[in-house]
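Possible regression after last week's pipeline update?

I re-ran a chain I had predicted before the update to compare outputs. Posting the input and the new output here so someone can diff against the archived version. Not blocking, just want to make sure nothing changed silently.
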Amino acid sequence: MQDPIQSTNPQLELAKQRNRAAAERTLMAWIRTSLSLISFGFGIDQIIAVISKTVNNDVNTMRLSRIFGLSFIALGIFAMLAAALEHRQELRHIRRDPYVYTSSRSLGLLVASALIFIGIAAFISILINVRF
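New output (post-update):
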């Protein structure tokens, strides 16, 4: 009977360890990004709340700012959830033998697209002073 440790390919096992470490680093980067988005959205909402208490400003403008703050929070939550699911899927993929690379959708591109959309909406609403 062969020892399972001796029968494995050491190069393959080391490659799997490197891929797992890379997946962990990627997950940690997404957690930092998601927390930044959530914090930014929370900050926008809190600043608007303080301003609305001190200055009798237009309620519709405050509502629009709150929508943008909440959209950053929602995007951060979505990014964190998607990153966790992607990480879990990658770990399952690494465990398979033989390990074969398969391309997948880019979570970064998806989050960047959502940020572009939020940014354009904010820019246009400020530019034309849209009232909701």
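Follow-up from reviewer: compared with the archived run. The chain has a mean pLDDT of 83. Marking as no regression found.
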